Amino acid sequence: MDGKTRKNIRPGQRVNIVLKKDQRSGRLTEGIVAKLLTKSPTHPHGIKVRLEDGQVGRVKEILDTQEA
C-alpha cells in the first residue's frame, strides 16, 4: 500500500518514509508511526508523519497493515 491516503495510516504501523534531506536521492527510512501530521485526506507526495524516534517525513510505503 502506498502512503498517499490518510485513512490507510495509523499510529503504531511500520512504514517507510522519505525524509526532507533524502527527497532528491529517494532514500527510505523505516520506522513506527507516532503521529500523523498531514490533515488533508490525501496528499500527492505522501502523508507526512512523525516516527516514534522523532524523524519527520512523507510515507512512501506501508509495511504492515494493522486492522483497527
Strand and helix order:
EEEE
Largest sheet report = 4 strands, antiparallel, barrel
- The domain count comes to 1
| Average pLDDT rating | 93
Low-confidence runs of at least 5 consecutive residues: none
Q: Helix count?
A: 0
Helix proportion range: under 10%
Terminal CA distance:
16 Å
CATH domain class name: Mainly Beta
Basic shape = globular
Structural class determined from secondary elements: mainly beta
Q: Would you report the number of β strands?
A: 4
Our Rg estimate from Cα atoms comes to: 11 Å
Organism: Pseudodesulfovibrio sediminis
Protein name: YwbE family protein
Pfam families: DUF2196
Can you describe what's shown?
This protein is mainly β and 68 residues long. It has a single domain (6-62), classed as SH3 type barrels. 0% of the residues lie in helices and 38% in strands. Strands 1-2-3-4 form a four-stranded antiparallel beta barrel. A hairpin with a 4-residue loop joins strand 3 (48-51) and strand 4 (56-62). The protein is globular and about 30 Å long. The model has no long low-confidence stretch (mean pLDDT 93).
Question: Which features would summarize this protein structure in a list?
Answer:
4-stranded antiparallel β-barrel; mainly beta; globular; 68 residues; SH3 type barrels
